[in-house]
Design brief:
Bound molecules: pyridoxal-5'-phosphate
Strand content: 15-25%
Helix content: 25-40%
CATH architecture of the largest domain: 3-Layer(aba) Sandwich
Number of strands: 15
Largest sheet: 7 strands, mixed
Distance between the termini: 47 Å
Structural class: alpha/beta
Strand order of the largest sheet: 4-10-9-8-7-5-6
CATH superfamily of the largest domain: Type I PLP-dependent aspartate aminotransferase-like (Major domain)
Number of domains: 2
Length: 458
């Protein structure tokens, strides 16, 4: 049997339609078949090791190869692989997980959890709850959803309409009506503003949008505490608190999309906790199971649920639910995953190792091709630029970010290139100080190699 990377690559390209990919690029560069993982590392079929500083799409928080999760999955599959939560039934792992999540989300004020199959579904659920919440109170004209430019909330129609990345939306128009986008709170793009001025400026844009639309027409605002796929945008201090105040002032529901920032990523259990936020809903996926199985969840407050309870008392129902809402094996995986994050102190590790990693990458801010290095816990970015003073974008034809990522990959480190000249990191939360040093060292090397190749063209 031929087990080389190139043979698998050929078959992949021939038979598999890969998400968010271009066949021509896959044909040119090949695909890497990853076959095994342990801790923060994965291995390809030829045995080459990679430090996965993207945690397989921002999500393997507990790390690879965790037998406790595999065993929990196996136990549950043997005991009861499936039973639905519809029509008066439940299964034990989904009830246990709902209770566990409500306990974890106590500081954020969540009281009830609705399960789905992933992050897009979790957003879709939240958006449908928001619209129905107002209809139930005789305010059906409150249907608009505010989001931000560069937001990513998923690929289904509602989540995509909330997404603020035109490249992900334009080909699928017409989108769901009623979605509006405020400015992304990226301070790097507004260099003249101090942190507090930036917080006010970006929050004012949210309020301006709500007011211009008419507050009585706005159902909810959906926001990632740190915008991930749009370029790892860590908002200025004070911005999110101000956005929460604005929502309260205008009676707009606040939905936090914690699909990336949940389960320890930022050095707190949830991103909201960094800013003491108490939203009306929180969406989760990814780190909820660390990717061992697909699962999404939408948590809501008691106050919000009360409106639905009253409706149900009059014979109504929230007519929404995926077949796999509360899948018992996925919920068992989530419970084992949360046990690991909790008992191994991975949230505190994300804070400690994240601070070390940030300080190891910060000297890059002196590099001619770097505009900013920022991070919180184990999520962050290196912002590339053609000119540090003017903060000009890199010429796309140079593909500088791709080339740096390719140089890093050659050296056994996976880092992700995002739009807007951003290289992002979000490794497993079990990352060690030595691994953080490896990431930083390889980044320093890779950027030097690429800079020497392209500097004459900048
Ligand atoms: C913040 C955020 N929300 C929602 C989603 C969508 O999740 P899924 O791909 O599981 O549907 C993603 C996926 O990357 C995400 O980053």
């Amino acid at each position: 049997m031929n087990i080389s990377n190139s043979r698998i690559s050929e078959r992949t390209i021939k038979y598999k339609w890969s998400p968010f990919s271009r066949s021509q690029i896959l044909e040119r560069d090949g695909v890497v078949p990853i076959v095994r993982g342990a801790g923060a590392r994965v291995f390809d079929i030829e045995g080459k090791s990679y430090l996965d500083c993207h945690a397989g799409l921002w999500l393997v928080n507990a790390g690879y190869g965790r037998s406790e999760i595999a065993e929990a999955i196996s136990r549950q599959a043997h005991e009861l692989a499936w039973f639905s939560s519809f029509e008066g039934f439940t299964n034990l792992p989904s009830t246990d997980l709902a209770e566990r999540l409500v306990a974890l989300l106590k500081p954020e004020g969540m009281a009830k959890v609705f399960f789905s199959s992933g992050g897009s579904d979790a957003a879709e659920t939240a958006l449908k709850i928001a619209r129905m919440y107002w209809k139930l109170q005789g305010q059906g004209q409150r249907y608009k959803i505010i989001s931000r430019e560069r937001a990513y909330h998923g690929v289904s129609f509602g989540a995509m309409s909330a997404t603020g990345m035109p490249a992900n939306r334009n080909a699928f128009e017409p989108l769901v009506p009623g979605f509006r986008h405020a400015i992304a709170p990226d301070r790097y793009r507004h260099a003249a503003l101090s942190e507090s001025e930036a917080a006010t400026y970006f929050a004012d844009d949210v309020e301006r949008l709500i007011v211009s639309e008419g507050p009585a027409s706005v159902a909810a605002l959906i926001a990632e505490p740190i915008q991930g796929a749009g370029g790892v945008i860590i908002p200025p201090q004070g911005y999110l608190q101000r956005v929460q105040e604005i929502c309260r002032k205008h009676g707009v529901l606040l939905i936090l999309d914690e699909v990336i920032t949940g389960f320890g990523r930022t050095g707190e259990w949830f991103g909201a906790r960094n800013w003491g936020l108490q939203p009306d809903m929180i969406t989760m996926a990814k780190g909820l199971t660390s990717g061992y199985l697909p699962l999404g969840a939408t948590a809501v407050t008691e106050k919000l649920f009360e409106v639905f309870r009253n409706h149900e008392a009059k014979g109504g129902a929230f007519r929404h639910g995926n077949t796999y809402s509360g899948h018992p094996i996925a919920c068992a995986a989530a419970l084992a995953n949360i046990d690991i994050i909790d008992s191994e102190g991975l949230v505190a590790n994300a804070k400690r190792v994240g601070a070390h990693l940030l300080s190891a990458l910060k000297p890059l801010e002196d590099h001619a091709m770097v505009g900013e290095v920022s991070g919180l816990g184990l999520i962050g970015r290196v912002q590339l630029t053609a000119n540090r003073t003017a903060r000009t974008p890199l010429p796309p034809a140079l593909a500088a970010g791709d080339r740096i990522a390719a140089e890093m990959r050659r050296r056994g480190v996976i880092m992700r290139q995002l739009p807007h000249d951003v290289l992002s990191y979000s490794p497993p939360l079990c990352l060690t100080i030595e691994e953080a040093n490896e990431l930083a060292g390889v980044f320093h090397e890779a950027i030097e190699v690429v800079y020497s190749q392209i500097r004459k063209d900048l």
